[in-house]
Amino acid sequence: MRQHSETMQQPQRPSQNVSALLLSLKVTRQALRLTSQVTAQLLIHSNNQETTMKINIKKLGGEIDLSSPSLATCFEFVSLWSAETDNAMLARLCAGSIGVCVDHTSRLPKYRPIKHRASDYGHMCLDRLLGQGVTASIIYEEGIKCLSFMSAKIPTEAEVDERANFSSTAEPDTSTD
C-alpha cells in the first residue's frame, strides 16, 4: 500500500519558481526592447514610403517577406498586443502575427477571422511552430517584428485627417460625358 506522501506531487522549490519568473521577465524585456527598435525602423521606412520587412525563421526556410494582412486583422492583433501582460497570450499573439504576415507562403494555418479568434489562431500557429522546432525566443522575436509591422499599417488620426482634407479639396467632376 502506498503512503499518502508518495502519491502527492512535491511542490516546486522556490528557486525553480524564481528562475521561471526571471526567465519570463527577461523574455518580456527583450521583446519590449526589440519592439522599440523595430518601431523606430518602421517609422524611418514609412517616412520613405517603404514599408517592406522580412523575418528570419530558419525552420520555415529562412528569410520571408512579410505581407500586410487586412487593416482589420492588423487592428485586432495590435489592439490585443497593446493590452497583453500574460506571457502565454503574448506567445500566442506573436505566433498568430507570424501566421497572418506570412500567409502568402502557406506554411502556417490560414487565419479566418469569422471562424477564429486571434488567440485561438495564435494557439494553432504556436503549436505548429513549436512542433517544427522553432524556439520560443524566435517566436517572440520574429512575432514582435510582425506585430510592429502590422502596427505601422494602421492609419494614424493625422493620416486619416490628411486624406479627408485631400479628398474634400479636390474639385468635383463637372464633365457631362
What structural class do the secondary elements suggest?
Answer: mainly alpha
Strand content is under 5%
DSSP, total strands: 2
Average of the residue pLDDT scores:
76
Radius of gyration: 21 Å
Determine the fraction of residues in helical runs and give it as a percent range.
Answer: 55-70%
- Report the principal-axis shape: globular
Query: What count of structural domains?
Result: 1
Major sheet summary line? 2 strands, antiparallel
Enumerate the spans where pLDDT stays under 50 for 5 or more consecutive residues: 5-9, 42-50
Kindly report how far apart the N and C termini lie. Answer: 96 Å
H-E string: HHEEHHHHH
Determine the number of helices (DSSP H or I, runs of at least 4 residues). Answer: 7
Q: Taking strands numbered 1, 2, ... along the chain, how are they ordered across the largest sheet?
A: 1-2
Question: In short, what is this structure?
Answer:
With 177 residues, this protein is mainly α. 63% of the residues lie in helices and 5% in strands. It has seven helices and two strands.
Q: What does this protein structure show overall?
A:
Strand 1 and strand 2 form a beta hairpin. The chain is built from seven helices and two strands, in the order H-H-E-E-H-H-H-H-H. Helix 2 runs parallel beside helix 6 (136-153), helix 4 (87-101) crosses helix 5 and helix 4 packs across helix 6. The longest helix has 34 residues, at 14-47. The chain has one domain (25-154). It has helices spanning 4-7, 14-47, 71-83, 87-101, 118-131, 136-153, 157-169; strands at residues 54-57, 62-65. Residues 5-9 and 42-50 have low confidence and may be disordered. It is mainly alpha-helical and 177 residues long.
